[in-house]
Amino acid sequence: MKISIVVTQEEHFKYAQEICDTIESSALLRGTGIAKRTPEYIQKKMSNGDAMIALADGKFAGFCYIESWEHGKFVAHSGLIVHPDYRSLGLAKKIKSKVFDYSLKRYPDAKIFGITTGLAVMKINSELGYKPVPFSELTTDPSFWAGCKTCTNFEILQSKQNKMCLCTGMLYDPKEKQKTPPKHPFNEAVLSRLKKIKQALFLNKLLSFIFLFKI
């Protein structure tokens, strides 16, 4: 089976709805938050050349798009998804790596960042040279954070003034001298533990709030 990963064009508009459905169903299956996107938004990214799609014999296999913030000071990779029929093939890493290299050429001066709850994405990012950072090092553009409104964890983000959530922030600065292997190698056990601690802290605060409210 040959899978090609290419920069999107208008001919790929027909896959937009399937992409949105796959992203949403995957998030529901994992029980994680998701910033929803419409087919029209995905098509806009496709026509601007700010997305890459993986195709297997004309069938949708995977996707990821680029967003820029603060006049190109920051860029983020969003909507990384692999169709269920093509998982366990290492395709997510291939798509992410292609989008990463493409971003460096398209936005050479931009810091590349992302927020995620997925350990698999964290591992890929770490291997590309990203490092975990507090949200304060990410974009302050309100339109980026507004994109989290459809996420199930948005109230947590709001309560922390966009400074913390269940997601982990990761950043790649092209101006920093990169090392091989990355300066901050991925440790799945540590990040998994960090994720559980975050969840426990937020749950305890939520229960305390409910208790006080009832009183």
UniProtKB/TrEMBL annotation:
Domain of life the protein comes from: Bacteria
Transmembrane segments: none
Domain called N-acetyltransferase: residue spans: 11-151
PROSITE patterns recorded: GNAT
Gene3D superfamilies linked to this entry: 3.40.630.30
GO MF entries: acyltransferase activity, transferring groups other than amino-acyl groups
InterPro entries: Acyl_CoA_acyltransferase, GNAT_dom
Name of the protein described by the UniProt record: N-acetyltransferase domain-containing protein
Source organism (scientific name): Flavobacterium defluvii
